Q: What sequence folds into this?
């Protein structure tokens, strides 16, 4: 009895779609752009990082980005994939921190982890004309302060890569 | 015995989550602007280091710790305005809240309801409904839960630009 229950549990775990699997599945798919950012690109002497900043960087292991680029011909796929991605955030045990929906721009921040020890952050952003994107940040013990520190390092470093343009397009227009 | 407990839990669970789902249908509508902040976010925010000299910042952190959820919905569509009003009415029937104040401001009726905690100024739930009329006058539904003091609300309206903030300030002074 217990064995069957355990087996069932295993099977159901394996077959369940997760955000992680979604990233792998869609990386090569049509209309999608995927790339990873290694935190090491920030770990250079160039930025004169303080001990606190270095510690914060150590807490993140990986940043994966997946962007769906919308165009005139893929509206149906856009809706289907956007619903799938949003659905995964609900079924895959993420805790929603904040969710915004204004005039078609939709964004949410979701986490996994116990208390202040966050193991994973997933940011979702959607723009009606440009598509949607997912940013998945995985790490160990990402405290709120560490996250704020990293955000300030990125600002300071002024990193500008072509890939970021795809992400920028998903942000609401600055007025 | 175990089965009984499980059965009980299963029947109770949907009731517990009812308060949270009452307004959920407004979350994904293009015509409705929504902002939803959950307990975890408030918990994490309260962990942020802030300059101890920044007094309003410290007050803000103190309040944030006590909050469980914030939901704000605004719409200019008359169809969803009506839907919101009806939903609020139904919600108030199932969850009797005390009317804290009623203001008429520039032709808009603002109503604020609360569920009091142990003392009169202690609040467990606050619901504000502003009924707008016309396309430029938006309807606002704001729900705040947690365990906080009414007097602390002005800190929140100062730090976040909430719709109907001036009405909330008046409620705090009451």
A:
């Amino acid at each position: 009895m217990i064995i069957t229950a355990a087996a069932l549990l295993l099977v159901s775990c394996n077959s369940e779609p997760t955000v992680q699997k979604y990233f792998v599945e869609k990386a090569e798919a049509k209309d999608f752009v995927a790339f990873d950012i290694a935190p090491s690109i920030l770990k250079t002497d160039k930025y004169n990082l303080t001990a606190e900043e270095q510690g914060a960087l150590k807490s993140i292991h990986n940043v994966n980005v997946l962007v769906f680029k919308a165009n005139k011909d893929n509206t149906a796929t856009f809706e289907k994939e956007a619903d799938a991605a949003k659905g995964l955030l609900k079924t895959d045990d993420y805790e929603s921190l904040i969710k915004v929906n204004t005039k078609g721009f939709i964004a949410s921040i979701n986490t996994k982890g116990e208390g202040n020890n966050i193991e994973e952050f997933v940011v979702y952003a959607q723009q009606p004309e440009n598509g949607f994107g997912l940013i998945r940040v995985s790490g160990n013990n990402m405290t709120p302060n560490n996250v704020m520190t990293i955000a300030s390092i990125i600002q300071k470093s002024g990193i500008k890569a072509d890939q970021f343009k795809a992400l920028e397009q998903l942000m609401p227009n600055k007025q | 015995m175990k089965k009984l407990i499980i059965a009980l839990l299963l029947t109770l669970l949907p009731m517990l989550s009812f308060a949270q789902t009452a307004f959920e249908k407004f979350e994904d509508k293009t015509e409705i602007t929504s902002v939803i902040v959950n307990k975890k976010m408030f918990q994490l925010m309260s962990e942020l280091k802030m300059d101890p000299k920044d007094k309003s910042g410290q007050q803000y952190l103190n309040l944030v710790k006590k909050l469980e959820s914030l939901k704000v919905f605004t719409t200019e569509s008359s169809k969803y305005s009506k839907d919101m009003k009806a939903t609020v009415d139904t919600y108030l029937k199932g969850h009797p809240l005390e009317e804290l104040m009623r203001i008429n401001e520039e032709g808009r009726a603002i109503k604020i309801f609360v569920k009091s905690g142990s003392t009169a100024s202690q609040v467990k739930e606050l619901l504000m409904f502003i009924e707008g009329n016309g396309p430029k006058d938006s309807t606002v539904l704001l729900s705040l839960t947690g365990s906080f003091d009414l007097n602390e609300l002005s800190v929140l309206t100062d730090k976040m630009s909430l719709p109907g903030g001036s009405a909330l300030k008046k409620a705090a002074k009451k």
Notes: Residues 24-37+67-173 of chain B form one domain. The CA atoms of residues 6 and 12 of chain B lie 10 Å apart. Residues 14-19 of chain B have pLDDT under 50 and may be disordered. The first strand of chain B starts at residue 32 and ends at 37.
